[in-house]
Design brief:
Elements (H helix, E strand, L loop, with lengths): L1 H26 L2 E7 L5 H12 L5 E7 L4 H7 L5 E5 L8 H7 L10 E5 L16 E7 L6 H4 L1 H6 L2 E5 L11 H11 L4 E4 L8 H11 L2
Parallel strand pairs: 1-4, 1-5, 2-3, 2-4, 5-6, 6-7
Helix pairs in contact: 1-4, 2-8
The structure holds magnesium ion (MG) and zinc ion (ZN).
């Protein structure tokens, strides 16, 4: 019985996600659902990404957090359109939450919309919101066991950004294990190693991103 209820919730979500997707396609905007644990560096990666790409691409952002507008304020400081969603306790964004805020964004004037999901390695991967692709950020400080412990997120993502590589000298993280386990789960996964603190590796990520739309 419980399984049936969950299935129905996901089916209803997928229908709304499909409507969102049509709106995105009509507006000609490419949409990325950015996921990762709290503190992985999702917002900092967004700041780096926007700074690198905003001269070539018109970028908008939806920020998802349980409470607060700190992330939207950081993104707004870069002079791009941003909307903050507060889920009020829910640990992921769903298609309906996205649908409700789309009227607050100039979709037709955007090339790229990045949706920063609630910090969580589990259920954001289960909910489509109408995106073209999912991507995830994993901080190397989270440990090399994460791909095998949270496989769905690695399977659902098209890109994996391994952040905080500047801290590698202080960590025992086995990067080969992270890479190999991630690719075992998802053979087509694009992996980027970056430091949002010093900017290393950001180039290859942003070059790949800008190539997606063409
Ligand atoms: Mg954030
Ligand atoms: Zn959740």
């Amino acid at each position: 019985m419980k399984v049936k209820v969950v299935t129905k919730i996901l089916e209803a979500n997928d229908r709304i996600a499909e409507e969102n997707r049509k709106r995105f396609q009509d507006a000609g905007v490419y949409v990325i659902n950015l996921m990762g644990a709290p503190g992985a560096g999702k917002t900092t990666l967004l700041e780096r990404t926007i700074s690198a790409l905003k001269k070539d691409l018109r970028i908008g952002v939806i920020e998802g957090d349980i409470v607060g507008a700190d992330d939207a304020e950081r993104i707004g400081a870069l002079n791009v359109p941003v909307v903050q969603i507060n889920t009020g306790g829910a640990c992921h964004l769903d298609a309906n939450m996205i649908s409700e805020v789309l009227g607050h964004l100039p979709l037709r004037e955007l090339d790229l919309l990045i949706i920063e999901n609630v910090g969580n390695l589990v259920c954001p991967a289960e909910f489509k919101v109408g995106e073209d692709m999912k991507a995830m950020v994993l901080s190397i400080t989270e440990g090399h066991d994460k791909p095998l412990k949270y496989p769905l997120m690695f399977r659902e993502s098209s890109a994996l950004v391994l952040n905080k590589t500047d801290l590698l000298p202080y960590m025992n993280t086995d990067m080969n294990k992270v890479r190999n386990d991630s690719l075992t789960l998802n053979r087509g996964l694009q992996i980027f190693e970056v430091s949002c603190a010093n900017g290393q590796g950001i180039d290859s990520w942003t070059t790949w991103l800008s190539g997606l739309r063409s």
